Automatic annotation (TrEMBL):
<protein>
    <recommendedName>
        <fullName>FAD-binding PCMH-type domain-containing protein</fullName>
    </recommendedName>
</protein>
<dbReference type="InterPro" id="IPR016169">
    <property type="entry name" value="FAD-bd_PCMH_sub2"/>
</dbReference>
<dbReference type="InterPro" id="IPR016166">
    <property type="entry name" value="FAD-bd_PCMH"/>
</dbReference>
<dbReference type="InterPro" id="IPR006094">
    <property type="entry name" value="Oxid_FAD_bind_N"/>
</dbReference>
<dbReference type="InterPro" id="IPR010031">
    <property type="entry name" value="FAD_lactone_oxidase-like"/>
</dbReference>
<dbReference type="GO" id="GO:0071949">
    <property type="term" value="F:FAD binding"/>
</dbReference>
<dbReference type="InterPro" id="IPR036318">
    <property type="entry name" value="FAD-bd_PCMH-like_sf"/>
</dbReference>
<dbReference type="GO" id="GO:0016899">
    <property type="term" value="F:oxidoreductase activity, acting on the CH-OH group of donors, oxygen as acceptor"/>
</dbReference>
<keyword id="KW-0274">FAD</keyword>
<dbReference type="Pfam" id="PF01565">
    <property type="entry name" value="FAD_binding_4"/>
</dbReference>
<feature type="domain" description="FAD-binding PCMH-type">
    <location>
        <begin position="189"/>
        <end position="382"/>
    </location>
</feature>
<keyword id="KW-0285">Flavoprotein</keyword>
Length: 658
């Protein structure tokens, strides 16, 4: 049949979907189209996942199945072409979209579970609020009915997922026993404020039901945290991953003096990767993030995820407002100066709480202040980064440059004589100055459309080699230093170096896709940068004496926002410990912590990593800020029974919910 005679809009793609996916779409029993110009996904916006080598076969099969050469096939530039360029497909970093101008009235075509989805928008229309629709991992439907946008989502936003059972987090490091799982799902409301108002009311009702049933609750995004901070047994779990739409913010939605174009309304289940993509499609960018992209943005903020941008804090610094749901209220929390207009806040069904203390507590809540349902996220104009990555023997005097914040001198000695945007050093703690360290620099430049693209290996680095060699390293401690060096060389690709042709990428293109870390030990300490040289010497001495198959990573950041941000010093050095998950590795980290304490070096630990904390230690580490956080918590949730609703053995032990 001719394409014009049966107008449809089709969005199907990812690296796993090859020709069989196309044939399955053709056999999905799609109803006949009504020629009224309506598109799928309710109001015509749609999403595109990553495409790999199957794209050309897909397009050919599409023509073969549906016939004709009418309609059009357009190519959109994507913000992060990681996997495609890595395998020689789509070398220019293009994503593919095939669509038809009018859609099947009742068709909704989705890909099934993908590892790292990519997205693009439909052409914008003239409405004030443009909605972006994301697929959720595990969405196995290829074609299914869809609602009209005007009608909204005529189903419950929260549904139960099967029978009571066990749930294990993404990295396989923690399990909730006797858990009843629920999912919070996005709807098709025209405006973001209406969408989150519906969802927040549903969440509040759900909290009441959980309390009546005598069950504790835990919001689960991507389940990314390797620590047990999101683990609670005999509980109700609320999965937010399908609640992941993002909305632009209009000028009338903000208070005077606030730049609306820099902001985006983000539902709680949107991944860091998704938020980054959406910003980049608008010519904007996140200014920092962690090494991975698989966390939900809300979850990453809740635990203080960070990177190594030397002039910035943590990812939670992007937050400008939070919608937080408790059993007794739906709260819209902002700084005292305010961000969103009164009319916007009222339309979200929330009570405005413009208070600096409450906002500082809500920026990093560690899951103990209620259920986050939406965020307003800030951005900067899109920019490029040039990566330099190499293996170099580092002189011990270089630590003095890093401790003093003289990143220009460090960069000039080992990479480019420029001010770096990002600095990271990964070392073998066994003879660290005699074996090459893995150095990574990013240099920020203004955005331009034409640039030589970096590959994923050039922009990022993974931990796979350490995971693979971890067991061997643990069984043969006598070979640990040499094998650890080999693992570093295999796991952290060298180049591009200063003599290689320069390549570039956006910030989002540098976000790594990690595999589950079940076999990897993951911990860190954050210290005052001025203590770096002394702390590093002590750490290496502990490993030399007691063993432990761990690489040590040095990263740098400024003080992060949020009362419970681990990066609480004016200038921070974050020291990560990554190695095989074993008793010996955990013991080595415990000895590092003991030695730092014994030498009087102040430090904090990452909430989402192995941390060995208790309430007394949290109070000692955070001091007055911890008291302020608890005061804000008690104002927000005055009833101890309601505070306990969000607790767990871990959070109770940390003094966050007790």
């Amino acid at each position: 049949m001719d394409l014009h005679s049966a107008p449809i809009q089709l969005v199907v793609s990812d690296a796993q979907e090859k020709l069989p996916a196309t044939l399955r779409v053709a056999q999905a029993g799609i109803p006949a189209a009504k020629k009224n110009g309506r598109k799928c996904e309710g109001d015509g916006r749609h999403v595109v996942d990553r495409l790999g080598a199957g794209c050309a076969r897909f397009c050919a099969a599409f023509r073969a199945v549906f016939g004709g050469a009418g309609g059009y096939f357009s190519v959109d530039r994507q913000s992060a072409p990681a996997g495609r360029r890595a395998y020689g497909c789509d070398p220019e970093g293009l994503g593919f979209r095939c669509q038809r101008r009018a859609a099947l009235c009742h068709a909704r075509i989705r890909s099934w579970s993908v590892r790292r989805p990519r997205f693009c928008d439909a052409p914008p229309d003239d409405r004030c609020h443009h909605q972006f629709r994301f697929p959720a991992p595990g969405d196995g439907c290829v074609a299914r009915p869809c609602r009209r946008a005007a009608a909204g989502r005529r189903m419950m936003p929260i549904v139960q997922l099967g029978a009571e059972g066990r749930w294990t987090n993404y990295h396989g490091t923690g399990t909730c026993e006797v858990a009843t799982r629920f999912a919070l799902r996005s709807g098709d409301a025209e405006r973001g404020r209406d969408e989150i108002a519906i969802a927040a009311r549903a969440v509040q009702d759900w909290l009441g039901q959980a309390q009546a049933a005598g069950r504790r609750v835990r919001p689960i995004g991507a389940g990314w945290s390797p620590s047990n901070v999101n683990i609670v047994s005999d509980s109700w779990l609320l999965h937010t991953r399908r609640f992941n739409r993002c909305f632009r913010v209009g000028g009338a939605d903000v208070r005077p003096g606030v730049e609306a174009a820099a902001l985006m309304l983000v539902e709680a289940g949107a991944l860091v990767d998704e938020v980054s993509d959406k910003f980049e499609q608008q010519g904007r960018s996140l200014w920092t993030s962690g090494a991975g992209n698989g966390q939900t943005f809300a979850g990453a903020c809740a635990t203080g995820t960070h990177g190594s941008v030397v002039g910035r804090g943590g990812i939670q610094d992007h937050i400008r407002a939070v919608q937080l749901v408790t059993p007794t209220g739906i709260h819209w929390i902002e700084p005292a100066a305010g961000v969103m207009s009164d009319a916007f806040v009222a339309a979200t069904g929330s009570t405005a709480l413009r208070d600096d203390e409450l906002f500082a507590a809500a920026q990093l809540p560690v899951g103990a202040l209620g259920i986050v349902t939406a965020l307003v996220v800030d951005s900067v104009p899109k920019f490029l980064v040039r990566p330099i990555q190499n293996l170099r023997k580092v002189d011990c005097a270089a630590l003095d440059w890093l401790a003093a914040g003289d990143f220009r001198s460090f960069s000039a000695a080992y990479a480019l004589d420029q001010d770096p945007h990002f600095v990271q050093m990964i070392v073998n703690p066994y003879k660290p100055f005699k074996r090459p360290a893995m150095l990574r620099f990013l240099y920020r430049e203004p955005w331009r459309d034409a640039y030589p693209h970096a590959t994923p290996g050039e922009l990022g680095a993974g931990y796979d080699a350490l995971s693979l060699l971890g067991r061997f390293l643990d069984e043969y401690p006598w070979a640990r230093g040499a094998l650890l060096q080999f693992a570093m060389k295999q796991g952290y690709a060298a180049g591009p170096d200063i003599d290689d042709p320069p390549v570039y990428g956006s910030w989002g293109e540098g976000l790594n896709t990690h595999r589950p870390l079940a076999d990897l030990f993951n911990a860190s300490v954050t210290i005052d940068r001025a203590d770096l040289a002394r702390a590093f010497e002590l750490i290496c001495a502990v490993y030399a004496r007691h063993g432990g198959s761990t690489v040590v990573t040095l990263r740098f950041m400024e003080r992060a926002q949020g009362l419970l941000a681990p990066a609480r010093f004016p200038h921070n050095a974050v020291i990560d410990f990554d190695g095989p998950r074993s008793a010996r590795t955990a013991e080595a980290y415990a000895r590092v912590v003991e030695r730092l304490d014994a030498e009087g070096i102040a430090f904090t630990r990452h909430w989402a990593k192995s941390c060995r904390l208790d309430a007394a230690r949290v109070a000692a580490d955070y001091g007055e800020d911890f008291r302020r956080w608890r005061t804000a918590r008690d104002r927000l949730i005055p009833d101890p029974a309601h505070r306990a609703l969000f607790g767990s053995a871990v959070l109770d032990g940390l003094g966050l919910t007790g």
